[in-house]
Amino acid sequence: MSFAIRIHKTGGPEVLHWEAVVVGDPAPGQARVRHAAVGLNFIDTYHRSGLYPLPLPAGLGLEGAGVVEAVGEGVTHVRVGDRVAYAGGPVGAYSQERCLSADRLLRLPDSIGFDTAAAMMLQGLTSAYLLRRTCRLQPGDAVLIHAAAGGVGLIACQWAAALGATVIGTVSNEEKAALAHAHGCAHVIRYDREDVAVRVREITGGEGVAVVYDGVGRDTFMASLDSLRPLGMMVSFGNASGPVPPVDLLLLSQKGSLFLTRPTLAHYTARRADLEALGNELFDVVADGRVKVEVHQRYALADAACAHRDLEARRTTGSTILVP
Questions:
Q1: 3-class DSSP state of 202
Q2: H helices of the chain, where?
Q3: Structural domains of the chain sorted by starting position, each given as residue range(s) with its CATH number in brackets
Q4: Tens digits of per-residue pLDDT, 132-144?
Q5: What is d(CA 109, CA 136) in angstroms, rounded to the nearest whole number?
Q6: Is the pLDDT of residue 183 over 80?
Q7: pTM of the model as a whole
């Protein structure tokens, strides 16, 4: 018997249920993976709450790491016994084992453990497409990264610094400020007591930053636009504080002919070749130590509701995993 977290209605963490499920054999093109660790991400709370609707009943979770137990017809790039990890859709990672499309699986290098992989795949691949594809950072660029002590933030700040960027991060308290400083931020702004855009202008000598990576959403959107230099790029990739209200496009011209994009990992990894390229870049920077992935919280998978409460209450830092 296998178990998984399922939801039958949307709502708060109380709608998460630990249930027996039938997994079965993989269909053609699929592989069955037994999870050693599963990642926790803010997008999981959007699926649970209904902000990002799912057909119900549904599983949750978009990333995991484990061992291939079986493969379906036509699968050639992974084999039984391979150590693998994945991130992206479809949902269902909150499970002891699952079947999923084998072309979403990446073989793990021997130097990267399951806990690290589960903690980094979604956040790391997100950082990879943001920094290397959406707005390819150049040495000397000044960048603003919101929620710098969060899962994406800690990876993105280290990676951006390794690329030669001047990294400015925002955080909510001194503990998170110290964490951000230790992970690549040259400057840290306490958004709870400082005007972010004013401080960015001070730090950059009035110029503003080349790009803002904003996974917070509603609460930071205008400050993000006001932090950009002319022709700068606003990258809005999350809604931790709620969705951004409708935007008058004239604002972009008034604030300096700005660029605005709302990317998703799914689009940047839709082709297998793109997934492998971003995955290889991520594995390289983690394996050689330029980016350190630290698991700050562990919860039993059956206790996912507790993990969701802590995540939404901002009681977590960095990466969190769920252990089946």
A1: helix
A2: 42-49, 114-129, 151-162, 174-182, 196-203, 221-226, 250-254, 265-268, 272-287, 304-312
A3: 2-121+266-323 (3.90.180.10), 139-262 (3.40.50.720)
A4: 999 999 999 999 9
A5: 25
A6: yes
A7: 0.87
